[in-house]
Amino acid sequence: MLSTIANDTKVLIKKIIKIIFSGLGFEIKKKSKIKLISKALVSFEKYAVFTTSAGTQIDLLKGYKNYIWPESFDEMIKSHSIPNEKFIKRNKIIIKNNDRLKKISDLLKIFGFNYFNKNVLEVGCMNGSLTYLFSDNGAKLADGIDLAETFDVEEKYAMSLNPKIYKHMSFLEYYQKGVGKHFDNQTVSKTRFFNSNIESYKPDVLYDYIFSYATFEHLMNPINALKNMYNILKKGGVCIHIYHPFFCEDGAHFDCFDFPWGHVRLSEKDIKKYINQYWSEDSEMMSHRLFNTINRMTLADLRTYSLSAGFEILLLQNNYNLHSNRMDEKIFWQSKEIYNNLCLEDCLSGSVTIVLKK
Predict the structure, then answer these.
(1) CA distances (Å), 48 to each of 56, 280, 335, in order?
(2) Could you tell me the CA-to-CA distances from 278 to 68, 145, 257, 273 in Å, in that order?
């Protein structure tokens, strides 16, 4: 009996690992043998030295920032500010979210769950394509929430090109309506969108499932967010969050520095010094993004917050960044001086997957 349970547990773990690794660009060929599908690690030339307020000298590496996060914030704004039909097709918006839907569905199957004929909420739905796909693939009701004000920069840039484009609706509404044109009337009729954050969201229904993708790192009050998720779930309801934490190598998103884990190794004072020294033209906006749009939640925090909100943790998986060997003892201890509850696993993360049950 015990051996049967143990074997079933091993099979379950293997399934979870296979789904997560495939999402990261790895392919598991045989037992404990992983083939890395990635370009080889590159080296970078030193081009300058940044000196912290404490006198620590850090080498700046030419090309490192663009390698870690190739697209700049300005490039993203210019390319995304008017998400018309041509943009949606060219960028394969719905196809990409179909891949996300499959990963979520596979994860649900492992635990014996599915969203067919269930109420679903997507947190941080942005263009709504994943929300529509839940409806299109059998959800009874699919709601999506996001904050229109988050996309003010896109709106302002688009309005400078075409003053009339967002005169009667926000960037978010425009994008969601455009994506909705790719679905039939039945799907659209059971898909709803609300301008709200998750901390204060008060729906008119309870949900069976709550999902988020690349959103949880942007919740500036994650404990309150989890508490509200618990409140708006039905008993036995499940949350799945897949996100990109601040402490991983490219956790600063568009604002990675020219040296590994720069956003983690520097104090707030030194981050501002670095920004003013090397990105003075965009210093105010960059500081806003770093200090007001990405939380500093460690894996230990996530575990504590989830339990204190009342959830049972079914899975907490740190999907390690096996593409990088740049972390060393010096980098870690510089980071640890800034964030004393930091662990090495936080820094080595590529993404995090958590499955919670009420």
Answers:
(1) 14, 17, 21
(2) 17, 36, 10, 9
* pLDDT 10s digits, 87-107: 999 899 999 999 999 999 999
Q: How far is CA 219 from CA 107, 158, 171, 224, 285, in A?
A: 23, 26, 21, 9, 18
| Residue 277 amino acid letter | Q
Give whole-number Cα distances, 187 to 88, 285, 303, 352, in Å. 18, 38, 36, 30
Question: Two tokens at 258?
Answer: 């020219």
Given this model, what pLDDT does residue 9 score?
55
How far is residue 144 from each of residues 38, 149, 200, 219, 220, measured CA to CA in Å?
34, 15, 14, 15, 19
Kindly state the helix (H) or strand (E) to which residue 354 belongs, with its residue range.
strand 349-357
Q: How many CB atoms lie within 10 A of CB 14?
A: 12
Position 336 pLDDT exceeds 80: yes
CB distance 247 to 346 below 8 Å? yes
| 197-219 pLDDT tens trace | 999 999 999 999 999 999 999 99
For residue 238, what pLDDT is reported? 98
Report pLDDT for 205: 98
* pLDDT, averaged across the chain: 88
Residue 90, token pair as written in the block: 């060219």
Residue of 182, 217, 187 whose CA lies nearest to 83: 182
pTM listed for this prediction:
0.87
Nearest Cα residue to 213 out of 287, 309, 123, 150: 123
CB within 8 A of 53, min separation 6: which ones? 267, 269, 270, 273
Query: Which residues, listed in sequence order, are joined to residue 144 by a DSSP beta bridge?
Result: 122, 193
Which whole number is the average pLDDT over 337-341? 95
* Token output for 154: 């896109």
